[in-house]
Amino acid sequence: MTTPRKTRDPKTLRPATQLVHGGSMRSSFEETSEALFLTQGYLYDTMEQAEARFKGEDSAGFIYSRFANPTVAMFERRMALLEGAEAARATASGMAAVTAALMGQLKAGDHIVAARALFGSCLYVVEELLPRFGVASTLVDGADLAQWRAAMRPNTKTTFLESPTNPTLEVIDIAGVAAIAHRHGATLVVDNVFATPLLQHPLQLGADCVVYSATKHIDGQGRTLGGVILASEAFINEHIHNFLRQTGPCLSPFNAWVMLKSLETLPVRVAAQVRSAEKIADYLADHPGVSRVLYPGRPDHPQAALVKRQMSGGGTLVTFDVKGGKAAAFKMANALSIVGISNNLGDAKSLLTHPATTTHQRLKPEVRANLGIGEGMVRLSVGLEDVDDLIEDLGHALSVLGAGARRAAE
């Protein structure tokens, strides 16, 4: 007779252990690695069982992989444990998660308040997509709680922000915004992708829903797309479950499996990237070719006091302004030999982008200027390379600008 394996409530485990063992479901083969269930549909023992599952009376099995899948379910359970959420739903991409989290709550006649500093695609959803369906939107300076208060209306149903923001790494008072939203009977959705689930916990700060582009740090190795929505069981059941089931932005089982394996190393990767980002930010702050460095872990960050209260680390991204504007920023980036030019982030490889011409290019120049996105600004996503190699690479690229300036003076 086989002795049953000892088990422990995964909620009592620490994050690094949860990310290795949490949410696992083993088949009869007792595999050590999570199984990949590449299947569209499922069989039923009887017609009665099929009827019960479609009625929701039998939740022990699956119906269709657009609705749920064993591998995807393991990823959702593991993410919920890490986030401290009651429930999670995975999606095909981060933008699918954002769109579902907002549209699942809203209908014609409703109103949303969002921080002005958002990723370009998120701005599109708030400013252009939702108003097409009769949902009014108001954008505010996210760091100014007075603007959040002034923007609230009787028909405001939800609020939305990202913190730290893309690309200026502004940190917003999540607890403060949550209190304002709840006072008016609205919810708060937080895009926590830059902070990762390890460095900031929006649900503990009062947020009702957290969304991630799992494409970023959660996969963290540039392979697969994915997203995830995390909230209470009530929020998921009321706003998210049926929306996803009927509209179909489902995460593929293969991508879920890749991300399950990635979660096992998430704490190790993020800790190493944060250490490197801190050193790089300090190096750039002292470089004569750089006019400004934005990094939440530095004491000169505009919201440094809030960062200490709200985050346990500065993150893996560093934003800085290159003296000389767009031409200098391009020249510096083109001289890099290790850091790659890409609009992605949260990868094992260090990546650099120019927001004004990529992620935020659709914004009018005056809007970018209002957000603090200048022509010389670049956003660096720090990877897992040796930090000294990265500093040497950045130093060489910036030195090219100095050489050019000297030649011009001659």
The fourth-level CATH homologous superfamily of the largest domain is Type I PLP-dependent aspartate aminotransferase-like (Major domain)
Return the CATH class of the largest domain: Alpha Beta
Percent helix: 40-55%
Strands, count? 12
Shape: globular
Largest sheet: 7 strands, mixed
Tell me the β content: 5-15%
Q: Distance between termini?
A: 87 Å
CA radius of gyration is: 23 Å
Q: Which structural category fits the helices and strands?
A: alpha/beta
The pLDDT mean sits at 94
Point out poorly predicted stretches. Answer: 404-410
If you had to describe this structure to a student in words, what would you say it looks like?
This protein is an alpha/beta fold. The chain folds into 2 domains: 250 residues, Aspartate Aminotransferase, domain 2 (3-Layer(aba) Sandwich), CATH 3.40.640.10; 144 residues, Alpha-Beta Complex (Aspartate Aminotransferase, domain 1). 41% of the residues lie in helices and 14% in strands. It has 15 helices and 12 strands. The strands form 2 sheets. Strands 1-7-6-5-4-2-3 form a 7-stranded mixed sheet, sandwiched between helices. Strand 5, helix 8 and strand 6 form a beta-alpha-beta unit. The radius of gyration is 23 Å and the shape is globular. It starts with 14 loop residues before the first helix and ends with a helix.
